[in-house]
Amino acid sequence: MPDLSPPLGALLASAPPDLSDAEAMALARLHFGLEAEPKRLTSERDLNLLLRDAKGAGYVLKIANRAEPHAVTTFQTEALLHLESTAPDLCVPRVLRTLDGATEVTLANGSLLRVLTYLEGTPLHLAPRSGTQRRAMGRVLADLSRALASFTHPAAEQDLLWDIRHAARLRPLLPSCPDPASRDLSLRCLDIFEAEVAPLLPTLPWQVVHNDLNPHNVLVDPQNPDAVAGVLDFGDMVRTARVCDLAVAAAYQIDPEDALGSLTAFVAGYHEAYPLLPEEVDVLFDLTATRMITTIGIASSRAASHPENAPYILRNFPAARTGLQALTALPRDAARRALRQTCGME
């Protein structure tokens, strides 16, 4: 099994914190004054509990993985505080302060404890999809990215495996892929990324980005699935090329029956709210495939190392495999022209 050595892979190689519900509730009561019924939420790295108080208000108690540096956890907390002050209309979790007014608590084992508000809505992966919804999601991501553009933090420079600018490092993970066809296709796309895309990334606009707008991190209105109701999970934030964030999100918008149409609908929404440069548009198609490769490589390796958590780790694998097949079936030059036309550049 490939060695996910620090700093790049230490967090992914570490199991989530182990704490009983009773212990977690004692912490919530002691530090936040919360009396609530707990419900465990799935998480690849952290311990997350949904808490509902007597009035029905929801909160998420989060205990960070001990392998995650405190600065990285604080980076996430301060980003949410920044969004609360600069973009209050964005539907993202809010940070609940302790009884002493703090935003985080350091536990005896060194982990950081936080509580965030719980957002209501239907997870995107359980909702019907449409072009209107994709366009709306593009606008929401653009609004989020524009708000984060003014945010800085030392931990934003973290070396993150999920940052697709590091995709070349995934080559040793791809042999873990159980599907030979997906493995071979991933390797061919990785060759393109290394030769044609990676050298251009340093020349493009950079900023702090969300970096994980997958269908499990987006909520929609149950009564109107075309309306985005919330964006979750800021655990993969990083400072990178802005277009990488768009590519990450676009990778989850591909409809195998209409790969190009679904991609352009999403990109159109983003470009309307936060205009892209032509140079960003030209690498977007290949970067979208690169995110799918990243999902395939990391998920395959992680599932093999942690079979007890494999169903959660592999939750996005089938969509990545199908999406990569559909995306790479398109002629690259024609797809890039279509994206330029979508953004009014041709």
pLDDT average, as an integer?
Answer: 92
Order of helices and strands: HHEEEHEEEHHEEEEHHHHHH
Helicity level: 40-55%
Tell me the major beta sheet.
5 strands, antiparallel
Overall morphology: globular
Number of domains: 2
Alpha-carbon distance between the two ends: 47 Å
So, the CATH homologous superfamily of the largest domain? Aminoglycoside phosphotransferase (APH), C-terminal lobe
Please characterize this protein's 3D structure.
This protein has helices at residues 10-13, 21-32, 70-86, 131-148, 180-197, 242-250, 259-273, 278-305, 310-313, 317-328, 332-342, and strands at 37-41, 47-52, 58-63, 105-106, 112-117, 122-123, 206-209, 218-221, 224-231, 238-241. The model is unreliable at 1-8 (pLDDT under 50). It is 43% helix and 14% strand. It has a 5-stranded antiparallel beta sheet with strand order 1-2-3-5-4, sandwiched between helices. The chain has a 3-stranded antiparallel beta sheet with strand order 6-8-9. The chain has a two-stranded antiparallel ribbon with strand order 7-10. The chain is of the alpha+beta class. Helix 6 crosses helix 8 (278-305). The chain folds into 2 domains: 10-118, Phosphorylase Kinase, domain 1; 123-342, Aminoglycoside 3'-phosphotransferase, Chain: A, domain 2 (Alpha-Beta Complex), CATH 3.90.1200.
